[in-house]
Amino acid sequence: MPVHTPLPVSLLTTLLLSLPFVGFLALAMASRRVSAWLAILTTSFGFVVAFVLALNLPDQPLTIQTAWADLSGTLFSISFRLDSIAALMLILVHFVALLVQIYSVAYLHDEPRLRRYFAYLQLFVGAMLGIVLAGNLLVMYAFWELVGLASYLLIGFYAERPSASKAAKKAFLMNRVGDAGFLIGIFLTYYNFRTLDFSVLDTAVVGGALPTALGLCLFMGCMGKSAQFPLLTWLPDAMEGPTPVSALLHAATMVAAGIFLLARIHPLLSPDALVVIALIGTITTVWGGYSALFQTDIKKVLAFSTVSQLGLMVAAMGTNNVSGAMFHLLTHAFFKAGLFLSAGAVIHAVHTQDMRHMGGLRQTLPITFWGYTFCAAALAGVPFLSGFLSKEAILSGAFDWASHQPGGLASLIPIALLLSSGLTMLYMARQWRLIFFGSYRNKHIPLDQTHEPNWLMRGPVVLLAILSLGFWFSINPFSVHGSWFFRLIPTPAEGHFGWLAPASVALVAVGGWAGFRMNAPRTDTIAVRLSLEYGFLDSLFQYLVINPTQKLANLLSRTDRRLVDGTVNNLGITLVVLAYIARAIDRLVIDGVVNGAAWIASFFGQMTRSVQNGRVQSYIMVTVVGLVLVLWWLLY
Amino acid sequence: MQPVDSHLFLIVGAALFSIGLAVVLLKRHAIVVLMGIELMLNAVNINLVAFSQYDPDRLQGQMLALFVMVVAAAESAVALAIVLQVYRHFRTAQLDELNELKQ
């Protein structure tokens, strides 16, 4: 748009952010019948607004600011920031959320708590928009926690299942670990720079020394939300939520938040912190990829592939390749949402999540099959699809970074990343075969009763599969250079590695062949168990964290019972004894004095009363005695 | 006339007074108590008459004794009347049973 029309951008941004929250409140009051369409209407309106905003994006990042708290001269403000990354994320979040909600209408049509489901989704979307639009770390942290809450509610949506509520708790608690680090990182940022505003921070840090601890603490937040090693075990458990929620969670909202955070705070990361981040990303991507290899649950394979891809994005961030990471986030959002939605369609058809009870479904679910195929191929990095492009961007960035690092060890990172993309093909091909090829193995539902879902569910899958094609992002199918994306989000000059594309294609081919041929392994070998239990991380946590914590808690409870309760009880007993003594003193001394006084009074009363007996003769006697006494006293 | 030794009078008077006092204090019947009072009055009279010998000119003691007798007669009359009324009222003249003064 060459002529800048004076669009009320800030007004639109505020409207955009408040829409889902209004939707959340409205859904809380709406009837069940209209709730789904109300939610979809809200999100599609938001989508349109986000699109308009993106088309009218100002040249400079736009900041909307309003004072929040003035603490002894330090002003903390609520500020929102709209720039190209934010606009991209706005469209992405709205688009995926819209498709997921349309899909949910059909997928959850029997669900009695539909209204609550859509209300939670709106809350989730709103919280994510808040993170995307946040203009300083404090606001981001607030929405960050809101995402945590919404994810807790959605993962534990089937609250009647103990496993679901456990998974929700686990996700929430593991996120808390990361969030604690994030909060400390925010404090460190404020301590170092006296501001939390992104626009100020971007320029403030140039030239100054950066504390590595600051970057690592902030990265802790990403570690929790984006399921990085070692905080990755909540993500597979989060599959307890409804499948469309998994799609939203894994594609556009929750786990993307960590990557987005890294993009925002990237100027604050010191070179050492970046190395650690790259390393953790690499470990995560290999760990996740290997864990996906032998899973039997259709959703768990996808969950670990998400872990793996997130590790790839984090590694890209660590290798100074923000645009590559954001690009992969974008492409990944489409094909991962597509994969989850097709997995949902498969589950809808066969009523199980166990891939050992599927097989041969390509005849009865042709559209789901093709949607799944395109999305999986994109995920695995097959040429002509979007995943290939973004992985190539990340890998070339990583090799470029490694070539500038001292020592040969740095090149292990890009090599590991390259191998992990081969691993991706391996497990995706295995899953593809288990679901759609071979013989049908489900005894409960005959093959001819499995059928495609209706168009509300098929439509989003088809749309997402189409968006997984490479040419939307780059005309050149083997290189991403010159793509519109990198004009939008500029990338530092990267070396181009001509051998990279053929090498990835070769790896993909080998991985695909091996994965397709892979037989069901015995489950008792150590290699398989290592994958199934994702590197025994949960057991490790059990031994390292949970058991000591429980022991400490038991110890504290015993101390409480014995020491504190004992002290209180002894104090109580002492008080009771003292009270008895006081009562005795009261009765004997104080009452004694009073009673004694009364007794003396009554004694004298009796005495004097006995004198006043009304008998004349005793009066005379007294008179006589008195007279005698007076005489005696007078005379002697 | 040989004057009688005055201390004999005094002994008789004291004895009479003591007997009268004992009667007043110990006897239960109102009339008897009144009799005791008469005895005491007469013991006083003996003393008055006995000491009157030291005042031969004016005989004030004897005069006072006569006066006491008159007053005692009047007193007896009044007292007996009261006793009569008391008896009528309470149907008794036993002083032990008359304790209206206690009220």
From TrEMBL, chain B:
Chain ranges passing through the membrane: 6-26, 31-51, 63-84
EC number(s) per entry: 7.1.1.-
A GO BP annotation: ATP synthesis coupled electron transport
GO cellular component: NADH dehydrogenase complex; plasma membrane
Subcellular location: Cell membrane; Membrane
Catalytically driven reaction(s): a quinone + NADH + 5 H(+)(in) = a quinol + NAD(+) + 4 H(+)(out)
Function field: NDH-1 shuttles electrons from NADH, via FMN and iron-sulfur (Fe-S) centers, to quinones in the respiratory chain. The immediate electron acceptor for the enzyme in this species is believed to be ubiquinone. Couples the redox reaction to proton translocation (for every two electrons transferred, four hydrogen ions are translocated across the cytoplasmic membrane), and thus conserves the redox energy in a proton gradient. NDH-1 shuttles electrons from NADH, via FMN and iron-sulfur (Fe-S) centers, to quinones in the respiratory chain. The immediate electron acceptor for the enzyme in this species is believed to be a menaquinone. Couples the redox reaction to proton translocation (for every two electrons transferred, four hydrogen ions are translocated across the cytoplasmic membrane), and thus conserves the redox energy in a proton gradient.
Protein family membership: Belongs to the complex I subunit 4L family.
Quaternary assembly: NDH-1 is composed of 14 different subunits. Subunits NuoA, H, J, K, L, M, N constitute the membrane sector of the complex.
Record protein name field: NADH-quinone oxidoreductase subunit K
Organism: Spirosoma arboris
Gene behind the chain: nuoK
